[in-house]
Amino acid sequence: MSQTMKSSPRLRNSYVIGVISVMLILGSQNVKVAECRVANEVSNVIEYPAINCRKHGALLTDFGGVGDGVTSNTRAFRYAISNLSQYATDGGAQLVVPPGRWLTGPFNLTSHFTLFLEYGAVLLASQDESEWPQLPVLPSYGRGRDAPGGRFSSLIFGTNLVDVVITGQNGTIDGQGSYWWNKFRMSQLNLTRPYTIEIMYSSQIQISNLTLVNSPSWFVHPIYSSNIIIKGLTIMAPVDSPNTDGIDPDSCTNVRIEDCYIVSGDDCIAVKSGWDEYGIKFGMPTQHLIIRRITCISPDSAMIAFGSEMSGGIQDVRAEDLTAINTESAVRIKTAVGRGAYVKNIFVKGMNLNTMKYVFWMSGSYGSHPDPHFDPNALPLITGINYMDVIARNVTKSARLEGISNDPFTEICIANVTIQVSAEKKKLQWNCTDVAGVTSRVNPYPCPLLPDRGNFDCPFPNNVLPIENVQFRTCNV
Fold it and tell me: 86-137: per-residue pLDDT in tens?
């Protein structure tokens, strides 16, 4: 990824580079792309931060887009991106979505490309199933999450890409998920519901400064990818909506998630890496992940969950400066016999929690399996789990830590924790089985399997990961 580029004041304040004038006549084959114009002086330039800027650009309306909330723009998006892809080797291109309500089905992105949603732009996901392409199951899952068959494409999708930016002036992407939630609840789905954004087998990805609402299922799903920055997202779904995870890094390396506000019907952030024998065979971990400055509301799920699909392994995760309000648990590990692999070297520092069912929760019997063919001897390794500097208020139960018989969770460290229990508190505040570790300065006093060993802090890495060094350029629309 690129280092910071200092644009001149003249460039930042007076110019748009390489605006493409494109005329598209929908309903015919006459698609005309005019030549790029040279830089033109303008009075209203939008600046935005991105990993890379683009030499060329166009508006969705240049391709016949209609922002009335009724007309389908699926064809306009697909034509626009197809035409702009020709500039991938000439400085890249950006597609700007102006204010309006833009109904659309799924479309695929291209490399060296920016999708930019202006303030007041709303993408509305089509509820017409005929507009949604079907995709095969993910190889690390072996089946769909909702049904054994394949899955619907995500609304914004891309595979085998390099250098992609999805950003805006807090423009909105509305998944209009109620249609899909109702079908899921009535068991009427033969395919897995769409996600809002999914990027596969790709590198150098930025998803930032957007509002995402009402996803049919998971909101943001980078998978089999690397060098990803997810920043400044507002993600919202009804707290009773099914499986509306906020951000799911899945078999990814070098990921930075920061400054996001998430209200969800499921885990706000779910770290994954494949399901049982399929994830073990695929063997791609999620690793070198940074999560910071996150606020979560999820009454029935976790702020951050590891698993339950973790069969490719999860390691080296640093999470800090986290806030959860009215959320079932803070950081939860979900695994089971048959998962195999590992969750190890997890470092969490600085949690501010208010109204929680559990502060600490680890589950070794989360037994959802893709099929009966999982290996009962594939035991997960859960070790090196560190929590430090936690303040929690109005808590029902401090900890529920349940390892696996003959496969205990080990090297757990918990330090500098103050928990204020609620009026409806459970009498047994720490419920611990098949776990081992140490604690320091924890109140209420922890279980005997996690004895107090005096005044110490849990470890937190001080080395800098490569994804932390990535800086944004100042780009223009």
Answer: 999 999 999 999 999 999 999 999 999 999 999 999 999 999 999 999 999 9
Cα–Cα distance between 325 and 303 in angstroms, integer?
Answer: 9
Mean pLDDT of the chain: 92
Q: Is 180 helix (H, G, I), strand (E, B) or coil?
A: helix
d(CA 19, CA 63): 14
Q: Under 8 Å CB-to-CB from 467, ≥6 apart: which residues?
A: 227, 228, 229, 254, 255, 256, 288, 290
Both tokens of residue 96? 């700007």
In sequence order, the β-bridge partners of residue 248 are none
Distance CA 432, CA 446 (A): 9
What is the chain's Cα-based Rg?
A: 23
d(CA 38, CA 174): 35
pLDDT tens-digit map of 42-94: 458 999 999 999 999 999 999 999 999 999 999 999 999 999 999 999 999 99
With a CB cutoff of 8 Å and minimum separation 6, the contacts of 8 are none
pTM of the model: 0.91
Report in angstroms the alpha-carbon separations of 245 from 44, 179, 312, 398, 403. Answer: 37, 17, 20, 24, 24
**Closest listed residue to residue 216, CA positions, set 151, 122, 148, 290:** 151
Q: What is the pLDDT of residue 423?
A: 87
The CA angle 88-230-283, to the nearest 5 degrees, is 85
Tell me: cis bond preceding 308? Omega within 30 of 0 counts: yes
Residues serving a catalytic function are: 266
Q: Are 258 and 291 in contact (CB under 8 A)?
A: yes
* Predicted pLDDT at 242: 98
The SS3 call for residue 459 is coil
